[in-house]
Design a protein that fits this description.
single chain, about 300 residues, alpha/beta, 8-stranded parallel β-sheet, 3-stranded antiparallel β-sheet, 14 helices, 11 strands, globular
């Protein structure tokens, strides 16, 4: 089955669930433009999620989903809200969906885990996932070890359910490449940071536009929780402390509230500006509709223009 048929959307594009960013304005804009908007529920209480779902419903009558970070302790409460609000699509990350998969499936919810490896992709298929998102280390935020170019075709060959490519995709060429590697669609995060509807501080958007191909770094690999962000004073200090084997409390003190500082206050020096390596390709801020339609047009032109001789 195609991703567009499975999700009842026009284009095979899913918006990445970016914590504190993927809220109603962005989610609805992506869904209205023909993609699938995803609410990032990380850090939300059940009532906060309900409010965000209802705000999104007020802005779009198109399908949208909710992402669940399974390391959170209130997944049961969030699940109740998702079912009560009749949200039909859930993406997952940061943990195993084993406990909740039967509940979601009984409610008729389409479940799409984000996976960093072939082993986990196969495990998700056995659990009953409807599709998987194969995310390479190029992506922003929490990342795995393997690049999208290497990871995607291996997962495609390992499972029978649809695979969605993610990490390092920000234009039509990236979409065409993912499809050529066997993906049925793509998940895109960083490109949507630089859109009119993205509810982040203008300085956050400016940092994404300014970034070059080598301006992101991964912190937290030693602790087993790698996160990719744009380099700044805070990130460089974190890496220095990591190299000196600083304790966990010291590192947490440095990063406490850092995402909020960047997203809401526009502090791009001491805040965490999570973005992927593809940020260097992004040069302007546009409406989500323009971004999606241009990407799809370019992807079709790339595919049509390929020469194999």
């Amino acid at each position: 089955m195609s991703i567009t048929n499975l999700l009842n959307i026009k284009y095979p594009i899913i918006q990445g669930a970016m914590a504190q960013i993927a809220k109603a304005p962005l989610v609805a804009a992506v869904s209205n433009a023909g993609g699938l908007g995803i609410i990032a529920s990380g850090g939300m209480t059940a009532e906060m999620l309900r409010e965000e779902i209802q705000k999104t419903k007020a802005l779009t009558d198109k399908p949208f989903g909710v992402n669940l970070m399974l390391m959170m302790t209130n997944i049961a409460e969030l699940t109740e809200v998702i079912i009560e609000e009749k949200v039909g699509i859930v993406t997952t990350g940061a943990g195993t969906p084993k406990t909740f998969m039967p509940i979601w499936k009984e409610a008729g919810i389409i479940v799409i885990p984000v996976v960093p490896s072939v082993m986990i992709a196969k495990r998700m298929e056995k659990m009953g996932a409807d599709a998987v998102i194969a995310e390479g280390t190029e992506a922003g935020g929490h990342v795995g070890e393997t690049t999208t170019m290497a990871l995607l075709p291996q997962i495609v060959d390992a499972v029978t359910i649809p695979v969605i490519g993610a990490g390092g995709i920000a234009d039509g060429r990236g979409i065409a490449a993912a499809l050529a590697l066997g993906a049925k669609g793509v998940q895109i995060g960083t490109r949507f940071l630089a859109t009119d509807e993205c509810p982040v501080h203008p300085d956050f958007k400016a940092a994404v536009i300014k970034a070059s191909d080598r301006d992101t770094m991964v912190t937290g690999r030693k602790a087993g929780a790698p996160v990719r962000s744009i380099k700044n004073k805070m990130i460089k200090e974190y890496i220095r402390l990591e190299e000196e084997n600083a304790d966990r409390d010291t590192l947490e003190e440095l990063t406490l509230g850092s995402l909020r500082k960047a997203v809401q206050e526009g502090d791009t020096d001491k805040g965490s500006v999570m973005a992927g390596q593809i940020a260097g390709l992004i040069t302007e801020i546009k409406p989500c509709k323009d971004v999606i339609e241009e990407m799809m047009t370019d992807a079709k032109n790339v595919i049509a223009g390929l020469e194999l001789n």
